[in-house]
Amino acid sequence: MIDWFSNEEKIGAIPLNDRGFQYGDGLFETIAIRDGELRLWHYHVARLARGCKTLGIKMPSDDFLRKGVMHALHKSDTKKSSAIAKIIITAGVGPRGYGRTENISPSTLFAVFPVIPYRAAAYKDGIDLALCQTRLAINSSFAGLKTLNRLEQVLARNEFNETELTEGLTMDADDNIICGTMSNVFFIEGRTVHTPSLNRCGVAGVMRQHILTCLEEQKISTKIHKINFSEIRDFDEAFISNSQIGILPVRCCGNTHWKSTERTQEIMLIMAANKVIECHL
């Protein structure tokens, strides 16, 4: 049983008229706690701030959020050095109807979960991906953000629930690759690393941002652009990333196969040197 906290008080339920429950009116972040630290914290807070500005929700302070996470961690039975923290911010409790009252106060919830590590072989040999038929709607207002509305991801994930696959790639209506159901995707061509543009839809992951920053520091060429599904077979390698797994090489997606993970593993070593401990081979 996972305990949830609000204002450092344990809660057993949320009000039925909370706008997060009623309308998905809110945001969330999932933070990796590694070696007792909140990894990539500044990226998480920055994305929350962008989301709160977009949705018109008052952004809690960095100090308030950090204290909330650490309180939940302290109260949790989960291993303190390695865990998963979740923050949910909703527009708060209000009357029925889409419109918000002016004096509504946001609700902020915290919880900590145990880490379920991927098998070591997946980092060395790679994983296989499903190609999801559920398309991501183009909505540039929310592009890149983690809103509470995850219905597209739920439907896409359900497509391969009965298989051994753990992740699938999603596209938009124009057959452009966007991201995984819970990850971002990268492709490698020669010495250049490519990743899809997320200007129209998808979630801009904090690990994606960290990877792009670290590669730039290493003078490794990166390109962010539209990548159509028809083009992915032309790349040499592929990998996925998120805040919890770091990087996982990809062997295939549907009928498209990549035979090498050599360059991906070089990038994993770079990320291992930048505190992404899952990438230690």
Number of helices: 7
Q: In which range does the helix fraction lie?
A: 25-40%
The share of residues in extended strands comes to: 25-35%
| Extended strand count | 15
Provide the CATH architecture of the largest domain.
Answer: Alpha-Beta Barrel
Shape field: globular
The structural class is alpha+beta
Distance between the termini: 33 Å
CATH superfamily of the largest domain: D-amino Acid Aminotransferase, subunit A, domain 2
The number of domains is 2
Return the CATH topology of the largest domain. Answer: D-amino Acid Aminotransferase, Chain A, domain 2
Radius of gyration: 19 Å
Describe the structure.
With 281 residues, this protein is an alpha+beta fold. It folds into two domains: 111 residues, Aminotransferase class 4, branched-chain amino acid transferase, N-terminal domain (D-amino Acid Aminotransferase, Chain A, domain 1, 2-Layer Sandwich); 160 residues, D-amino Acid Aminotransferase, subunit A, domain 2 (D-amino Acid Aminotransferase, Chain A, domain 2, Alpha-Beta Barrel), CATH 3.20.10. The chain has seven helices and 15 strands. Strands 7, 8, 9, 10, 11, 12, 13, 14 and 15 form a nine-stranded mixed beta sheet that branches. The mean pLDDT is 95.
